[in-house]
Each structure stands twice: as structure tokens, then as C-alpha cells.
């Protein structure tokens, strides 16, 4: 076997991956403000306990200074014991307040993550195929998981560290000034340097973070394609090629991560160096003051403690600010999903009831995929009536599947209309469309669960008798009975534990369980052998005799008995009629028939 290897994702000069639009700046504060509003009580409790524990932490060095200067230095044991007991009490308050602050902060962070994931998932549920194709499945998964986690991490760090940093810095500096004004000049000189370092961190981390998120998307894309297409990869022996694809994206992600890590390491080391130099300067100045009697040793110890606390507050702030650029990029990516208006809009006053006849009318529908130069469908007409079968046939790329996807509003056409019982589908409630149409897609997909749970996607309230009836009609009852647990047999995600033909028949049974008035079969018999195909079509002719059927098929034998056959060619209707009429008058249809059947079979 031969074949061209699948191309690696191309990247332009600004490292944008296909399918991903440039990320808008900003949105982090707006996102947090919107989704933290319901959790204001948790935030308030976190702030209260953080303030309490910070005040307690700042009070301890002052108590320690008094204990050393007035107790230890003078040999006053009672003073030492009294102040020691007070210090223990204050420390105990600090520990309890810190524990409650972390608890409430974690609850707020987890609640934010839950709400964001729910919002993104709900928005994706509203997307049509156009939006799904635009973002790509790997990117949407990354935005729902990794990007949300980045914002969660920033929030918990912000509530537990960044919140106490300014209180610690301001309070520590005020108490340091109260102890010794000249010595506080060393701390005041350190603060601007730390501020400049934080500004440079943010400016350097934003582009690095953006690249990291994009390369995470790329790695996820390669992994998803590899797992989904593993059979093709093995069949064409493209393992080495796939490893090279993954290695390229993995190396890009590693390089972007290392770049961000180098920024963090450089500025972290710079801040630590400045802090250590400040401590050395404090000890040197303080030692001179102790030597000339203008300062006591307890005061110097307290001053060093405050310097350490201020340094720690700056380092904590720096750690949070290192996370902020990545969270900012993640918020912009999430905001982009949430702000994307689905191309399939929800009607303001949807129609919730239909006549229930099952009459389908597609009139002059035109559809163009995003980025395509020409429409894939042009002024296409199609009708289906109760008790009749309408078939659609054409060459590959003629637009057959696209036409079927327009009927249940998986897409909306540029022009024209799709009507069920005389009502435009754009005016119908989604639940009405779901009840009216049963669609078996070209690629039958089964969800992880059991046979029964998959069939009940058609009707959650269906009993076992209904399921078995649908299986009998779909020619699937025999192999389901042969399964270890029958209806309760576990099906792997995507239906990987059953064959292609079994998967198609289970998907047909799922549609039959719903008992809609219109059935759409998108090449749903392609994996069936001729005998099973014939038996299935015979059973369907009895079971859904009163329903409207639209069948897309590649095999002429599947649709030759249809009441109406629509021939598509390059997105246009090339002819409509019965098998005999088209065979005589339509050269496109005649060519398709002659390529599959002998003259005797065609007649």
C-alpha cells in the first residue's frame, strides 16, 4: 500500500496554528468579575481570614522584639513568659485564620473552574459544525481543561498569596518605620527594583505564554489524530512519520516552556539577590547602630523579620505575576469561545408544535464552507413525503452529506429554506427538530456506555421491548443477543468494540427508537453486505412505511427502488426522477449506474 503522509500542522510566522484565530488581549478581569460574582461570600470570607492572619503574622516580630529587649536582655523571666504566651496565642490565631483562608479560597477557585467548564461546554453545545471546524476539537478540549486550570491556579494563588502581599508589604514597612526610620531607607530602595522586575516579567511572559498555549493545542491535535487514526497509521506504516510530527510540536512546546522558565528563573534570582543584598545592608547598618547604642538587638531582629516578610511578600507577588500572563492568554481563549455567536441561531419565539405529517421541503438551498472559494451546494431542491423514499446520489464531493446536515440544522444555508410540515427549521425549537428527524450519520458514532444506553439516546424512556424491536428491524438483534450481557454489554467510546457494520446497524436502531416522522440515512448501509442490506431495507419498508425517508447512498442497488432519486453533480441538482426515468434521460445517473451494474442488472 502507498499513500501520501498527512501533512504536519502548518504555522505562519507568528506561530498561529490553522483553525485558531489570533487571540484578543485582555478579558481576564472581566471573566473573573463575571464568574466570581455568585461566589462573593467565599471571596469575602477569604479576604477576612487573610487579613486576620496577616495582621497576626506582622504582630509577632514586634512582640518578639519586646520579649528580647525587655525580657531576655533584662533577665525578666515573668515578662518573657507573659509575652511568650501572647506570641503563642497570636501564632495560633494566625494558623487558624490561614487554614480557613486557604479553605474558602480553594472552594472559590474550584467553583470558578466548575462554572467556566460548564459555560464553555454549554457554548460548544450550541455551536454548529462551522464553529467546531473553526476552533478544532483539540483546541476546544484544551480551552475547557488546561486553560480553565490556568485561571483556577491564578485565582487560588491570588487569594492565598497575592492578597496578603500588599498588606504584608505596607504593614511591614509601617512597622519597620516605627522601629527605625533610617534603617527603613534600605527597604524603600529595594521596593522600586522589585516593581521594575515584576513589570519586565509580565511583558516577557505574555508572548511566551501565548506560544505555550498554542503549542499545547498542536500537541493535543497530533495526539488526537494519532489515536483516532492509529489503524491507518499502522496500515501505511507511518509510525516514524507520526513520531516526527509529534517530536516537532513537542520540541516547540518544550522550547516555549523553557523560554518562560528562563524568564522566571532570571527575575526570581534577581529578586532573591536584591533581597539578600538588602538583608546584608540592614545587618551592616543595624550593627553600627547597636554598637553606638542607638538600637537594641531585639529591634534589629524584628527589623530583619519584617524585611524577610516584605521580601517574601514581593516574591509571592512575583510568583503570582509570573502566572498572570499565562492566565491572561487562557482567559482570552476562553472568552473567544464564549463570545462566539453560533451561526445556527436560536429563534426568539420558537415553534414548539408541528402537524406531525413529516413533509420535508428543501428549496433553493446554497451553502459555502468557511474559506471555500465556491459553494458546495447551489440552489438545491429536495422533497420527501410520508410513505415515500427520496434518494440522493452523486459522485464524491457532490455535496450529498452537506445537504443532509442542513436538514436538522447542523448548519444553516446561505440562502434558500428547509421546511418541515411547512415551517422553516430556523423557526423551530431544537427539541421539535430532534423529535421530527432521526438521522444516521455517515460515520456512525457510539458513546461509551452500554448497548441500551446508546439506543436510548433516541428515547430515554424506551423500554427493553422497544429496544429489541428496533434491533430486529436494524438486523442487529442477533449479534446483540450473542454479546455477553445483551443490552447491558459495554460499548467502547466511538464503538471501537464492535465492527463497522455492527456500528452502523446500532446507529440505525438508535434512530428507530426515537420513532421520528423523517429519517435521514447518510450512506448508512455502506458497511453492510448485500444480503444484510436487502434484509434491512425490507424491514424498514414495513417498520417505517408511514415516515418520510431520505437516503444518501453510493450503491445504486440501495436506492434503485426509491420513489424519487435526486442526482447531485458539483453541488447542483443534475436530475430528479425514478430509477427508470433517470436511466433513460440523465447521462450523469446513467454513468453512475453503468459503473456499478451490468446492463441487465440496471434494467
Automatic annotation (TrEMBL):
Q: What PROSITE patterns does the entry give?
A: ABC_TM1F, ABC_TRANSPORTER_1, ABC_TRANSPORTER_2
Transmembrane is among the record's keywords: yes
Q: Please give the organism.
A: Glycomyces buryatensis
Keywords, comma-separated and alphabetical: ATP-binding, Cell membrane, Membrane, Nucleotide-binding, Transmembrane, Transmembrane helix, Transport
Under the heading InterPro entries, the entry gives: AAA+_ATPase, ABC1_TM_dom, ABC1_TM_sf, ABC_transporter-like_ATP-bd, ABC_transporter-like_CS, P-loop_NTPase, Type_1_exporter
Give compartment(s): Cell membrane
Which protein, by its recorded name, is this?
A: ABC transporter ATP-binding protein
According to the UniProt entry, its GO molecular function terms are: ABC-type oligopeptide transporter activity; ATP binding; ATP hydrolysis activity
Main location per UniProt? membrane
| A GO CC term attached to the entry | plasma membrane
Which superkingdom heads the taxonomic lineage of this protein's source?
A: Bacteria
Task: Tell me where in this chain the ABC transporter domain is found.
Answer: 360-595
